[in-house]
Amino acid sequence: MAAIDHPLIDQFLDALWLEKGLSDNTRDSYRSDLALFNGWLQERNVDLPSAGREVILDHLAWRVDNAYKPRSTARFLSGARGFYRYLLREKLIAVDPTLQIDMPQLGKPLPKSLSEADVEALLAAPDLSEPIG
């Protein structure tokens, strides 16, 4: 599936840059996510501004089925929420289709464990010739 840009994506990202000063990386990620979503919509003959809640839920399910990571899906949903709120504010849509769509559950990252060499270095670090060592 090809990512397909849309003029409204560019307008939204320009507004984000002006209003919130988001980093280039965040805007690039949102652009990529929304263009991929637009390509997915085009395959289903749905126009980006007219995508409804059910279509967005279908896309979220598609992302799960295609092994997208939860953090990437959460980023997509965050970008989509901002995009559809922008369209609502600009009176280009009447209802925000992302309302009442929950963010994917993100597990807490596991702590990194020490290697055997790190443990050895920690144990060797105290100066045993000193009382507090």
UniProtKB/TrEMBL annotation:
Q: Name one GO biological process term.
A: DNA integration
| GO MF term list | DNA binding
Which keywords does this Swiss-Prot/TrEMBL entry list? DNA integration, DNA-binding
Organism whose genome encodes this protein: Pseudomonas syringae pv. actinidiae ICMP 18807
Superkingdom of the organism of origin: Bacteria
In Swiss-Prot or TrEMBL terms, this protein is called Site-specific tyrosine recombinase XerD
Q: Which residues form the Core-binding (CB) domain?
A: 3-88
- Entry's InterPro entries? CB, Integrase_recombinase_N, Integrase_SAM-like_N
